[in-house]
Amino acid sequence: MSTIHFVGGEKGGVGKSVVSRLLSQYCLDNKMMYAGLDADQSHSTLSRFYPEYTQAIDLDHFESADRIMELAIEQDVQVVVDLPAQSERFLNRWMEENGVAEMCEEMNVRCVYWYIIDDGMDSAGLLKGFLQRHGGSMPCVVVKNMGRGLDFGPADQSIAQVQLPPGSELNILTLPVLHTATMRKIDELNFSFWGAEHFADASQPHLTLMERQRTRVWVKKAFAEFDQVLAYSAAAAPAPVEPAPAPVASAPTPVAPAPQAPMAQTQMPLTNTRAAYVGVSYEAGAKASPSDTETTDEPKSLYPFM
């Protein structure tokens, strides 16, 4: 089953792009079919950090927004759509005028809206309005970003005041905070979160040992939160095909074993250069020795845009 993950929230600066990056990395790490769509023209975050898997779209134009459904229907894939602030009206218009909800039900496509909030009163008010309008029509995930505040009491009150119809699906997650200087360095080096954890070439810019460890712990905590919503998708990812066992000989004449079936998923070998870890084009320098990097087996999506 394909799933479309709309990552949004009407307020700007609450961490929508960080959640989009984490969702993308979650899909890659769990070997899911993944495609990213950048609807935030001002930041183009997914295009920056995951360019080989990302296309840009414009919600103002139906022909561009249509790509969301086209990707989800072509094959089973996790489509992550990074939405800009104040985009709800554009998304609503596209969905309503094209019968997207009905089409998703007919084509067995799941839609999930990730609503990112900080601890402000304005964020809580916007969340309440969103849940009243959409909480009963699609699964919603409210993400409390601890990097944007610590007291989410107003948001909790807003959620409690919304009367959702029976059968509605609402999840509430908490995104832990990553050390500010470490996050800033990851962004400055244009690392994916996988690259931030693993790239350690002494001849090129990279995170320190403890910065990599902080990132690793933070990503692990975030993924544990995501498991509440995404575990079903990881379980549905195609499993590698086991090699066919050799048949048991029933006669003195030896019987050749059956050839091994090809693996359903493959990993592309990567060079030990910084270009393999960053999300933007980078002229690869001298290759690092194997000891310079912790690993070179970066998770690769099965659905890249090349």
TrEMBL record:
Q: Where is this region: Disordered?
A: 285-306
Protein known as: Mobilization protein MobD
Species this chain originates from: hydrothermal vent metagenome
